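Can't paste images in this forum, so I'm doing it all in text. The chain is below; anyone willing to post the predicted structure tokens underneath?
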Amino acid sequence: MSSSLLTIFATPKKFAGHIGVIQRNAIASWTRINPRPAIILFGNDAGTAEIAAEFGLQHVPHIKTNEWGTPLVSDLFEQAEKLGQTPVLSYVNSDIILFDDFPAALTRVAASSEKFLMVGRRTDVDIKEPIDFGTNWVSQMRERAQCEGVLQIARSIDYFAFSRGLYPSMPPLAIGRFWWDNWLLWKARALGATVVDASRSVLIVHQNHDYRHTGYGRGKLDVMASEESIRNARMTCEADPRDYDEGFFWRYAYTIDDATHKLTSAGIRSNPRRLWKQFKRYSSRPLGMMKLAKRALTDAPGKSKPEKAVAGSQAK
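Text version of the structure:
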């Protein structure tokens, strides 16, 4: 993949303390990918403009937020589509270290489908210090990931590499507040895109951190219980706005296991696990299945579904 085919975009947090160290590590690694992608940093948190200037990156300070000041996924992706001049775009969390195998995998995926989403599992590593990029850092980091790293579960999704135009519109989901990433996978599947799990072919290093920057506490459960996360969960119920209140939110919580294909050394292969995942999703909820069946029977033929709530009413 030539450097003109990939745009990476992200919205970093404040460059302070440990978060500042690992974000700088991550962004610096992106600039060393060969061939080098275009990179756009969104937001005006402290240090973002300076990092963009230091590495010669495009900086977009203005991004729509909710009332808590959290950036909205919808505006982030929309602006990236308008500003990025490449056929492939990729949102990457600002704590993720990338290597040359990332564009190499994208080249293979893009050659196989015009409408695709590539995702993959991350490997968690405890990194406290700045990376010395003057050394053989790639080999050192790969060895460290192999020896110390922990491969995360399929629910943890830290990058989304997709063909231009895949997402025509999005609800105003708050980034980093759970469920928005699962929705991106569900939406890609709903749109009939080829969704590729590149876990076997791409090493994604996630630098561990706590969640104090969210203001909700140090752990994931604190963030998950927040009003922002609950709102995200409600807005992901796009197919039927009744789903959240009636307890069917789980239908939209797709993970990497729901990918239609896998990228392997032998090529792109079908992912049969997605069938097992869907069977398990429904069969483990017999009461939910009964409620869905009852709803299907009570919805008269030709009767329109309840109108989808607009963003403002969903947010209340």
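Residues 17-31 form the longest helix (15 residues). DSSP finds eleven helices and 13 strands in the chain.
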